[in-house]
Design goal:
zinc; 33% strand; alpha+beta; 2 domains; Herpes Virus-1; 2 helices; Znf_FYVE; 232 residues; PH-domain like
């Protein structure tokens, strides 16, 4: 079993926010994950941080599990799945955070599966003028981009520096664009220099082009989540 597919042991932990199923080793966590935020101390929030309602024995305070801020029940009533923090069950979130988490649900329910199923691309390494047809997919543990053809590569997601999605069909007046490839820059462990790979969608079959475009769209979303995790 390769390093990219090795099963990572997980453990169930309980925090004030709820039950979480997390990897036993921090290094094994998903690169798209987020850490639990520190809660704003009760003594520092006498009023709802959204509507300014004063807390008392009747109006209780609640903490949003995503941002850690204090809210009244009206402003923090939704319980929404939060897979980026590995919560087992939906958790209480403020309206703003709940909306963000709901949008991320599409990535975890659909686009993550697209990335793991993979798609075919012509891959060019560095400044080479030769390309190789390879199947590109995200590993099951979400930590590696695996490329299989005559050659084999495993790129650690956390080592990816930049991702540029290549499109066609754009016009100055607007209009539809289609993803046709991407340029990936990443660091090889032990080196500070960036390695570049160019991925170009195959033009052989219409079905392949659609699959490649869907995979690239999912990769674009994954890149946004990756940057957010780094900026936390």
């Amino acid at each position: 079993m390769s390093g990219s597919e090795a099963a990572d042991a997980k453990k169930l932990v309980r925090s004030a926010s709820g039950l979480r199923m997390v990897p036993e080793l921090r290094a094994a966590r998903s690169p798209f994950g987020l850490d639990e935020p520190p809660w704003v101390p009760d003594k520092e929030c006498p009023r709802c941080m959204q509507c300014d309602t004063k807390f008392d024995f009747i109006t209780r305070k609640h903490h949003c599990r995503r941002c850690g801020k204090c809210f009244c029940d009206k402003c923090c009533s939704k319980k929404v799945p939060l897979p980026r923090m590995c919560f087992v069950d939906p958790v209480r979130q403020c309206a703003e955070c709940a909306l963000i988490s709901q949008k991320e649900t599409e990535f975890y329910d659909k686009q993550l599966k697209v990335l793991m199923n993979g798609a075919s691309f012509f891959v060019t390494l560095g400044t080479s003028d030769k390309s190789e047809l390879m199947v590109c997919r995200l590993s099951n543990n979400q930590r590696y981009l695996v490329l299989d053809g005559n050659s084999h590569y495993e790129i650690e997601i956390v080592q990816i520096s930049t991702v540029q999605i290549l499109t066609e069909g754009f016009t100055p007046g607007g209009g539809n664009t289609r993803a046709i490839g991407m340029i990936l820059q990443y660091k090889v462990p032990g080196s500070e220099e960036l390695t570049q790979m160019k991925f170009t969608a195959s033009e052989d079959y219409t079905s392949n082009k659609k699959l490649s475009a869907s995979w690239l769209a999912a990769m674009h979303k994954a890149t946004k989540l990756l940057y957010e995790s780094r900026d936390q």
